[in-house]
Amino acid sequence: MPFLVLWLLLGGLFFTLRMGLINLRGFAHAIAVLRGRYDAADEVGEVSHFQALSTALSATIGLGNIAGVAIAIHLGGPGAVFWMTLAALLGMSNKFVECTLGQMYRVVRPDGTVVGGPMYYLSQGLAERGLGRLGQILAGMFALFCLLGTLGASTLFQANQSYQAIATVVPALADWDWLYGAVLAGLVGLVLIGGVQRIGWVTSRLVPLMCGLYVGAALWVLLSHATEIPGAIATIVQGAFSPQAVEGGFVGVLVQGLRRSVFSNEAGIGSAAIAHAASRTREPIREGIVAMLEPFIDTVIVCNMTALVVIITGTYRDPALAGVSGAELTSIAFGSVISWFPLVLAIAVFCFAFSTVISWGYYGEQSWDYLLGDLGRRTHGLYKLLVLAGVFIGAIADPQAVIEFGDGMMLSMAVPNLLGLYLMTGMVTRELRRYMTRLKAGAFEPVLVSQSVPGKRSPVDSRP
Questions:
Q1: Could you tell me which residues come within 8 angstroms of residue 155 by beta carbon, excluding any fewer than 6 positions away?
Q2: What is the pLDDT along the chain (464 residues), one digit of tens a residue?
Q3: Cα–Cα distance, 204 to 52 (Å, whole number)
Q4: Torsion angles phi and psi, residue 155, rounded to 5
Q5: CATH 1.10.4160, applies to 37-442
Q6: Residue extents of the structural domains in the chain
């Protein structure tokens, strides 16, 4: 069992129990908040709840949902999907805690921009508990891992893998990798220039559209094989506990499911807290509850849709496809029912890669600023050039070593992040109890969706 995967799984189990099953009892309220029923005109922030959720989702929904699920089934069998789903349900609690703290310790700069994330709640939150030195070390570790993960796993991996997937469907692009890299880098650059507001605007439109298209196609396949769905679910459950002819046996199935869940929804890594810190709200608990929806949408819905399509169509056990895995296997599964969908899937892969890069570009920028301070804010242009260079290089090269290094940095973010969450869990529990008491007492009256008033500070923004 890889240490980092186990570390994240235990974190999800601990926070689920410590927060009183908030991933279940807070679900309906999360939907209401996402619909804007509790927005108010005097709340501070740069993006809405929906835009913050879309920005965070755009960093997670992508090749992990299309390729990662097929890889899990290929290596661990259908039973891996069961453990992938369970890890996501527990991961909802990880997201709740980290995004709540991201709001509680966010900082409003003199120009009105809002910054936050693990760098800030680790340093400030632990300092309030007399652990200032530890907090500074953990915050620095997280920022460094996040920056390296952005420049490695996000830019190089997304550009490389999306190009490979598209070139498979459109052979005419096989010799035009440099053009693909240039186009993708140019589009990313146009969005990154506009900051988090433009990122939120783009992702709030692109992510729902592509998710809707992908899920719609999956539903079409599943409805055309509706009678086979119960059998596919039974195969998943049976394979989770009694795997047959799978390398590694039960442990192999378990590890593949947990690993793919972590790579897909990033619960516990802390990255999503950077996006949710910029949301317009004065209630940190409320934003944490909205953030819980990410693992549910990303893994429980989208990943399971992919899994059922691959299993029902039987492509994962086709001897002729023994060496096929990842996005190619998923494409073949959809294409066996919808002949033209592989081309649409290639477009979806491009859009998902694009949205993931711009969201992680924002995460990396915040880490750059934290590590370099004023110098970082004066050198945003240099940072963005590094991101765009990574996109271009990823499309034309095979940076396997760099990709593995970047993935390692992304998972390593969970070490300082979860350690800090454990130390601050008591405060989040108290705030959750108070919030739920006020909610039941009718203290929060539903209002119409409105825009925030720039320049005003919420109570949580008064923290140093």
A1: 357, 360, 361, 387, 390, 391, 394
A2: 577 777 878 888 999 999 889 888 888 888 887 776 666 655 555 555 566 666 656 556 666 677 778 777 777 778 888 888 888 898 899 889 998 998 888 887 777 677 888 999 999 889 988 888 999 999 999 999 888 888 876 777 777 777 877 887 777 777 788 888 888 888 888 777 666 566 666 666 666 777 778 888 888 888 888 888 898 888 888 887 766 545 545 555 666 677 666 666 777 888 888 878 877 778 888 888 888 888 888 888 888 888 898 888 887 777 666 666 666 778 788 888 888 878 888 887 888 778 788 778 888 888 898 888 888 778 888 888 888 888 888 778 765 665 566 667 777 888 899 999 999 998 899 999 998 888 888 766 655 444 433 333 343 443 33
A3: 8
A4: -70, -55
A5: yes
A6: 37-442
279: phi then psi, degrees, rounded to nearest 5: -75, 150
Rounded to whole angstroms, how far apart are CA atoms 176 and 40?
49
